[in-house]
Amino acid sequence: MSLRPWVVVESPDSRGLRRVTVGGETVGSAWSLGELRKILGRLGFPADVDLEDRSLICWRGGDSGTWPDRAWRRRAILVLMTVGLSAAMGLNAVVGWPDAAGALTFAQRVTGVLFVLSGLVQGAAALMALDHWGRRQFKVSGAVVLLGVLISLATDSLLLFMWLEETEYTPYLLVFLPLWCWSLWALVLLVREKSWAGVPQPKRFAAGVVATALLTAVSLAYSTMYQPSAAPMHFTLRAEFGTARADRVLPFVHVPLSLRMKNTGGIPVYILNDSYTVRGRGAKYSNFPSDEELLSEWRESVGKPGYPAGEADLHVSDLKKTTLSSGHLYGPGKWLEVGQEYYLERVFEVPKGARYDTVSVDVQVSYMRKDRGKLDVDEFSTAHPSWDEDEEHYCAWQVCGQHLVYQGRLRHNNNLINVTRKPRFVAAIWSPGLSPSSFISSRKFKGGSYKEVRRELDRYGAGRVRADAEVSVAELMRSSGL
């Protein structure tokens, strides 16, 4: 009769798994009698070996009937952990990749990279969950799973906090809200079983987790709060009239107009809307007007387009301004890099016998900081006539007037905001002779409330600059030789 090594079946651990040793060397572990027979079969024991033979098998902490493993519970926890960590990995990748690949600022790219790296850690944690709720061949598997759960709790809490600021519905809410609840459950479970116990130096592990969390928090705060507000924003705009020339055939005087704008700040900008309008001013003159006549004329001009509310002329009354020329300066949807300048020259005509005393030009430009968001310029730069019945925003011109509408999708340069808010749209309205308008809201082709529009304009760093110039018609005629 051949001698076989003595097999020892150790007592069940906290999960019901029993380690099997031969000659003091571990040869496997078993959840049940069936798994024990498979291990013995690999060692050369017959399939019908008598498990009660004390000369072959030594039972510790229980006999052959002591198998406390609850397989359904263990497998259910394993499935929930792997699914939760895999979903958290996907969410972090979706949130972080756009910023890591295309953010305009270094800090925002760092934030995106941190989210992507966090997703990779969660992917590794999902793999380690298979071992932690399995044979536990790696001592650090529990600690890695704990780290993945902590990352999920931190990122989902951040997303939930940002969502609570405005509580707008977004499809991502159906992902990060359940994940936040899942991460709380997973954290409680891992803390109860002290999953970090297998780490050789738990204090260093804890210090690494804290350092990672602080680095992420500082990067987020810098990219979303300090950096966008600290960068300077300056924009210069200038308008000048040139030397007029009389037409040789037609009864007109041709007046050159030079318009310049330059981004003198530290951030690139999108042009949301712009306009220049040239007006001729006619008026009645009086040598000795009364104060009441002056105030009356001032009251009538207040609020009218093209009339400064804080100006009144002593000898001038019955002001009347006529639009001579109007158009875009640069065009909605275009942008200016730092230090870039745009120059436009136009020529407009003034009739030789026109009863204008002065000619003025008013230039207005609305812009948005390019580091705050990304505008769909292909969509936004297309003009939509409001009177076109085939357009989505059609409105009878007798009711709404006649204007061009520009509209496009706007994405915040911090993708955390994109996933916790409704989509945002930029709309601009332009019509000859009227002040250009632009707004940002969550409603396509429609403006939101004043509070919402104001908040969104501030959030995306929108602003407006204006320049004007005025010249007397007498000077124009003199320079043209008339």
Number of strands: 18
User: In whole angstroms, how far apart are the ends?
Assistant: 133 Å
* Helix-strand string: EEEHEHHHHHEEEEHEEEEEHEHEHEEHEH
Mean pLDDT comes to 82
Main β-sheet description:
5 strands, antiparallel
Strand content: 25-35%
Low-confidence stretches: none
Radius of gyration: 37 Å
Q: How many distinct domains?
A: 3
Number of helices: 12
Helix content: 25-40%
Structural class of the helices, strands and pairings?
A: alpha+beta
Q: What form results from the Cα inertia axes? A: rod-shaped
Notes on the protein architecture:
- This protein is of the alpha+beta class and about 475 residues long.
- It has three domains: about 55 residues, no CATH class; about 160 residues, no CATH class; about 240 residues, no CATH class.
- The protein has twelve helices and 18 strands.
- Strands 8, 9, 10, 12 and 18 form a five-stranded antiparallel sheet that branches. Strands 13, 14, 15, 16 and 17 form a five-stranded antiparallel sheet that branches. A four-stranded mixed sheet has the order 3-2-1-4, with helices on one face.
- Helix 2 packs antiparallel against helix 3 and helix 4 runs antiparallel to helix 5.
- It is rod-shaped.
